[in-house]
């Protein structure tokens, strides 16, 4: 029993190469598929991910079903992912090539139809994202960009931006100063009339 679990049926280098190649293939496929982040996955996307893991399983493990072979594949995936993540954090050009760049999907309150069609975004998804980011409608947005990670980042038009705590604090300070001036003026008039 232990012998079967710990004896690899595929050489370690082949196991590592298989894992790296399948990882690279999936990265390329997702890059070609577009900017749909995990937050934006629909039912069909989940089905593809579940089936994809099953489809590529044999390509990763080959004819090896040992515990040690699985461990080598798992460690390889984690190491390759860590190395790639660190590389992308340091090299902007590699990040742009592998992850892409932001795409403007809303400009001055209007949906950029060509971009939304290419990205398979529905108007309802945009409207929901706007509401989640304190806008009321797409008309309130100065610029909306879909980032490479799939998140929609919006900048509201200045007139649609809500007050911040700092804004409220400044108004409170100004009101207090006006009240103090009025009190002083009222007190000054009280003495003058006596």
From TrEMBL:
Residues 92-160 form the YetF C-terminal domain. Its main location: membrane. It comes from Nonomuraea pusilla. The chain crosses the membrane at residues 16-34, 41-61, 67-89. It is a multi-pass membrane protein. Keywords: Cell membrane, Membrane, Transmembrane, Transmembrane helix. This is Uncharacterized membrane protein YcaP, DUF421 family. InterPro entries: DUF421, UPF0702_alpha/beta_dom_sf. Pfam families: DUF421 (PF04239). It is found in: Cell membrane. Belongs to the UPF0702 family. GO terms for cellular component: plasma membrane.
């Amino acid at each position: 029993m232990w012998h079967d679990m710990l004896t690899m049926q595929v050489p370690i280098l082949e196991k590592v190469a298989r894992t790296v190649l399948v990882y690279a293939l999936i990265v390329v496929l997702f890059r070609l598929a577009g900017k749909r982040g995990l937050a934006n996955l629909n039912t069909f996307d989940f089905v593809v991910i579940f089936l994809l893991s099953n489809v590529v399983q044999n390509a990763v493990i080959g004819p090896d079903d040992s515990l040690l072979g699985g461990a080598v594949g798992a460690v390889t995936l984690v190491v390759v992912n860590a190395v790639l993540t660190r590389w992308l954090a340091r090299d902007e050009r590699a990040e742009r090539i592998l992850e892409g760049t932001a795409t403007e999907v809303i400009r001055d309150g209007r949906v950029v139809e060509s971009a939304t069609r290419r990205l398979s975004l529905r108007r309802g998804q945009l409207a929901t994202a706007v509401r989640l980011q304190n806008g009321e409608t797409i008309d309130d947005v100065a610029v909306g960009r879909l980032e490479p990670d799939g998140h929609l980042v919006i900048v509201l038009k200045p007139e649609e931006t809500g007050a911040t705590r700092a804004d409220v604090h400044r108004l409170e300070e100004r009101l207090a100063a006006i009240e103090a001036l009025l009190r002083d003026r009222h007190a000054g008039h009280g003495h003058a009339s006596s």
